[in-house]
Amino acid sequence: MAPPPSSLSPPKIPMELHEINRAKLTKSLRDHLSLSSRPLKGFVFLQGGEEQTRYCTDHAELFRQESYFAYLFGVKEPDFYGAIDIETGESILFAPRLPEDYAVWLGEIKPLSFFKERYMVSMVFYTDESATVLHDRFQGSGKPLLFLLHGLNTDSNKFSKPADFEGIEKFKTDMSTLHPILTECRVIKSEMEVALIQFANDISSEAHVEVMRKTKVGTKEYQLESMFLHHTYMYGGCRHCSYTCICATGENSSVLHYGHAAAPNDRTLQDGDMALLDMGAEYHFYGSDITCSFPVNGKFTSDQGLVYNAVLGAHDAVISSMKPGVSWVDMHKLAEKIILESLKKGCLLVGEVDDMMVERLGAVFMPHGLGHFLGIDTHDPGGYLKGATRPSTSGLKALRTSRELQEGMVITVEPGCYFINALLIPAMESSSASKFFNCEEIGRFKGFGGVRIESDVLVTTDGCVNMTKVPRKTCEIEAVMAGGPWPLKKSSNYSENGGES
Ligand SMILES: [Mn+2]
């Protein structure tokens, strides 16, 4: 009998998770205000995401909550506001007052008590009551103070939108205190947050294995995407992905963000291609970010194995070294060094690896950063603390964080090695770097594309745990693609360190 298509089912969503998040923020904010001798009064006030339509039409885009609002309140509906009373810790949701014909087109209009119970908040009012409610509840003299969310996202360079509502002029507003404190709360994950990220990883890992098994020459890239989406939605209840699927094969696998509208995963798989599939499902806002690379025909050639093992060596070495206190910049350099050593061993490069490091040759083969925080956003915020500066050298400047690891961080480990003409040709022609290249050997890799191996890793007290469970060794991949079982057995769980998982 064929094995069941999935061993998983969607777990219950714990709304206490958001209660814990709110308590964490309230404590951090109170500590911060006490330290600067400011009164412990006022409200955190956030505006949730608004429903959007497609351009000028009435086609409603599928709504996904704004991430900071999701973190604090877990609300899945659009057009809410939320407040936390800093003095009492009480939480207040403000729901939109819906028009009568909502009940005809969109379903029953829920009473406020419904939201109070579902989201476990202290009270619920309508959004048009927010100014009055906050004024009435404020226990102080003068205008009540609102802590609004305003700050830079260091990955997008965009700013979060501070709440705006009718009557805001009746309040004092603080636009600078909340953002760094709330962002820092999001960096360290609670047990409940880790459990959701683990489920997103489990269902996505299973889907990756499913796709790997069904990949064959002649398949379209979008069919791989489709199989992944089906599996994570059908068996995991994941309606959203953390990001747009990258299903790159052949030369496309050196296009780092392939899969966008202008390159929509539409190539036909050829014999001899490598596939690079970067796909991750999201469950109750919390995401996963996983990349598998493998040969389309199920059998590694020696060149494919050379590049793949260079990247796997970097991936495993980083995971073996990760623990609290370790610098992420050092981990990036470790990955670069192992990739360069492997390329030298494979005769693609010649000379001293230390000299290559000085020349920043690692960035020619891996132009992106080693990894990023993961949570409610794929590139979860907090990579650069206020005042922190980005490294400026090539490769390192692409890092989405330069911080030291701390217990409770979830960060992706995603080394890669790509043959990108736009980087390789200038480097091979440069007066200082050309001496390192064995042009004849590298010529064989024209059109190869690239390899990336990406796992989601939780930093623990004394080490880390790899939350991603997919075949990684070349022999494991070949066995699974030939129809073998996955997981093989418990002992194959090699990529963790420090204590038990
Ligand atoms: Mn990633």
Automatic annotation (TrEMBL):
Catalytic activity: Xaa-L-Pro dipeptide + H2O = an L-alpha-amino acid + L-proline
GO molecular function: manganese ion binding; metalloaminopeptidase activity; proline dipeptidase activity
Cofactors (names): Mn(2+)
Keywords linked to the UniProt accession: Dipeptidase, Hydrolase, Manganese, Metal-binding, Metalloprotease, Protease
Residue span, Aminopeptidase P N-terminal domain: 13-157
EC number: 3.4.13.9
GO BP annotations, alphabetical order: proteolysis
First-level EC class: hydrolase
SMART domains in UniProt: AMP_N
Domain of life assignment: Eukaryota
Protein family: Belongs to the peptidase M24B family. Eukaryotic-type prolidase subfamily.
Subunit annotation: Homodimer.
Protein's recorded name: Xaa-Pro dipeptidase
